[in-house]
Specification:
heterodimer, A: alpha/beta, Peroxisomal Thiolase, Chain A, domain 1, nine-stranded mixed β-sheet, two-stranded antiparallel sheet, 11 strands, 38% helix, globular, B: alpha+beta, Aminopeptidase, eight-stranded mixed β-sheet, 8 strands, binds coenzyme A
Chain lengths: 391, 252
């Protein structure tokens, strides 16, 4: 297997973007190609979850190749729920690692604001089990709420812990010009003041408004290359060293213990094993905080903290910038936004930015090893990646 | 014979009780004051509404254009029984709401315009306006419409408004929705907040000047300027950029 490097990265602002979906992907891709200094690629993968349904557009990868005049590169779209982004990175990794391709463009994109919030919520809910979940009206906030309730009962996580993640990540986004939310929030305003319940109402109890990521549009892209090509391009040598992916039952109720995110555990374990690293080696991590509870739980399942102690680490500031394992320093999904198909790629974009030392106000000093966890379904399809700066 | 046309054209406003100001904390922890704006302060509001006419998203353009015309007409005495409330953070304008009294029992909600995003200031401002209609003016119901999907969510869904589709609303003649006293009472505990009286220093700051919004909604930023291919299906702009990257001129 050949080594695979990230030679270029690109992103659009995550917000509401009034452009055709494929053009959002193309813009991020163009930035990534420019960053890498390449104009020709062998293969293009475009990650996206909802284009046929939400944007009435199919064959997305063909559209991107055409927009960017990348013909005759091979091109395919990858749909894998909210884990589409990292799944596309995995496909790109395999293409380069196998020796089949030298330069692969991986883009992730979603345009969810084309429809109203109710439709967007319904669209995301299509990832649930059609007969056991969807037909009963279970949305993702509802899933996350039931999960949170169990976690609170078992491990002593409180609404304050959830709000602390929300404040940490939404305020971290203020250091990231590409992030959707650019509005500071405080614990007083969302939890403690007499107006807090109105400012921050329950969406699905015990989850409140500021526990959820916003609905966003956006795109992100990476250029993956072989070692030889990476050296030729002369960009910082950032290697994808570990790739882990795992699945779990589609319907959450079928799991022996729904608070156990087995797929997260397995995907992280495999990624670390492949990289020859352990969780304590990681300098900076991107976890999939679509809901605040998920950052706490994933920080345990991937091995940063023992089970049930993620919220204690959070209380101690371990997961903030300057802590022992800074998580989501660019805002995470909560602050940066969560255009579902783009998220896995945007997580990698943030890690590469960090490992290049380009994080400016949010830079984790001396970061050389990064980790991402892209959580699909309600934990039924998870991709974890490790990144190492080599030069 | 001389005729004072102005006397005919200028509506005679019905006396309406003033809105008692209130304050509250936002999600950001900042304190906001909600207060009634006097006619002579209207030009200050107009200055801050005008730029929103050019914000072509979330119906800011349509709503701002309508608000502008309503406020201007109010200032120039060409609007009957209109009132305006402002939401201010440290003097800075964060939201405007307006409406009017149709009869002593019926209110007509006009507009809600948020100039800071992401803090529910629009929602708080709307709640204050309903409070003014129902509690201060004693209206039995208020007729409401929404121009934007977020407005629909905030008003029709959050307050569970009733349909009054047989009554065309004054805004564009579209079918009306209604907030009744009963619906308002049900929403009170969850949607209507605020403390009174407003501490002097907060109120003084709000009254001293209506300062410009520090972070108003702006026309969509254009990180995608090169990809405006909604109007350019051949994506020539992208190709031009690519050629430029390769050191070739687009017209070579
Ligand atoms: C309708 C309106 C008054 C509502 O104002 P509001 O209650 O203050 O609404 P908010 O700004 O708090 O809510 C939307 C913002 O919440 C933020 N938000 C959304 N989800 C969020 C989340 N999960 N976490 C944190 N913030 C979030 C976003 O910043 C969003 O702004 P965006 O759409 O630019 O991304 C306001 O949008 C407005 O003035 N619109 C234009 C005019 C209009 O439509 N008036 C009403 C006509 S009916």
């Amino acid at each position: 297997m050949r080594d695979v490097y990230v030679a270029g990265i690109g992103i659009t602002t995550f917000t509401r973007l009034e452009y055709p979906l494929s053009e959002i992907a193309s813009y991020a891709s163009m930035m990534a190609l420019k960053d890498a200094g390449v104009t020709e690629v062998d293969q293009v993968y475009v990650a996206n979850m909802g284009s046929p349904r939400v944007n009435h557009q199919t064959a997305l990868a063909s559209a991107v190749v055409d927009s960017l005049s990348l013909m005759p590169a091979g091109a395919a779209a990858i749909e894998n729920g909210p884990a589409s982004g990292a799944s596309a990175i995995k496909a790109g990794f395999q293409a380069v690692a196998s020796g089949m391709e030298d330069v692969v463009l991986v883009a992730g994109v979603e345009r969810m604001r084309e429809v109203n919030n109710l439709e967007a919520t319904d669209f995301v809910a299509t990832l649930t089990h059609p007969l056991a979940e969807y037909i009963y009206g279970v949305t993702l906030p509802a899933h996350a709420a039931m999960f949170t309730r169990m976690y609170m009962d078992r491990y002593g996580v409180t609404e304050r812990h959830l709000a602390m993640v929300g404040v940490k990540n939404q305020n971290a986004a203020l250091n990231n010009v590409w992030a959707h939310l650019q509005q500071e929030i405080t614990l007083e305003g969302i939890l403690d003041s007499p107006e807090a319940m109105t400012n921050n109402p329950y969406v699905a109890e015990p989850l409140r408004f500021f526990d959820a990521c916003p609905v966003s549009d956006g795109g992100a892209a990476l250029v993956l290359v072989s070692e030889e090509k990476a050296r030729e391009l002369g960009r910082p040598m950032i290697r994808i060293t570990g790739v882990g992916q795992a699945t779990d039952t589609h319907a959450v109720f079928e799991r022996e213990d729904p608070t156990d995110l087995l797929a997260v555990r397995k995907a992280a374990k495999d990624a670390f094993a492949m990289a020859g690293l352990s969780p304590s080696d990681v300098d900076v991590a991107e976890l999939h905080d679509a809901f605040t509870i998920l950052e706490i739980v994933e920080s345990e399942e991937v091995g940063f903290f023992p089970k049930g102690e993620g919220h204690i680490a959070l209380e101690k500031g371990e997961t903030a910038l300057g802590g022992s394992i800074p998580i989501n320093v660019g805002g995470g999904l909560k602050g940066r936004g969560h255009p579902v198909g783009a998220t896995g790629v945007a997580q990698a974009w943030e890690i590469v930015t960090q490992l290049r030392g380009d994080g400016e106000a949010r830079q984790v000093e001396g970061a050389r090893i990064g980790f991402t966890c892209n959580f699909g379904g309600f934990g039924n399809n998870v991709v974890c990646l490790t990144f190492v700066r080599e030069d | 014979m001389s005729v004072d046309l102005e006397k005919i054209l200028r509506p005679v406003d019905t006396p309406m009780k003033p809105y008692e100001p209130k304050y509250m904390l936002l999600a950001s922890g900042e304190a906001v004051v909600v207060r009634q704006v006097e006619r002579d302060e209207i030009p200050d509001l107009l200055k801050h509404v005008e730029p929103l006419l050019h914000v072509e998203r979330d119906f800011y353009d349509v709503v701002a254009a309508r608000v502008y015309s309503e406020l201007l007409a109010h200032y120039r005495h060409r609007y009957q029984d209109q009132y305006v409330l402002a939401v201010q953070i440290d003097g800075e304008l964060a939201a405007i709401v307006n409406g009017r009294q149709v009869t002593p029992k019926l209110g007509m909600s006009l507009h809600t315009l948020a100039l800071r995003r992401g803090l529910r200031v629009g929602a708080h401002a709307f709640a204050a306006k309903m409070e003014y209609h129902i509690d201060t003016l004693g209206h039995d119901e208020v007729l409401i419409v929404a121009e934007s999907p977020i407005g629909f969510r905030r008003w029709m869904i959050e307050y569970k408004l009733e349909k009054r589709f047989d009554i065309p609303h004054e805004l564009g003649g579209v079918p009306s929705w209604a907030l009744t006293r009963e619906l308002f009472d049900r929403a009170r505990s969850s949607l209507v907040v605020g403390r009174r009286p407003v501490p002097d220093e907060l109120l003084d700051k709000a009254m001293a000047a209506i300062l410009p919004p520090s972070d108003p909604p702006t026309p969509p930023l254009d990180p995608l300027a090169a990809t405006r291919s909604m109007y350019d299906p051949t994506a020539t702009s992208l190709m031009a950029q690519r050629w430029e990257m390769e050191g070739r001129s687009a017209d070579a």
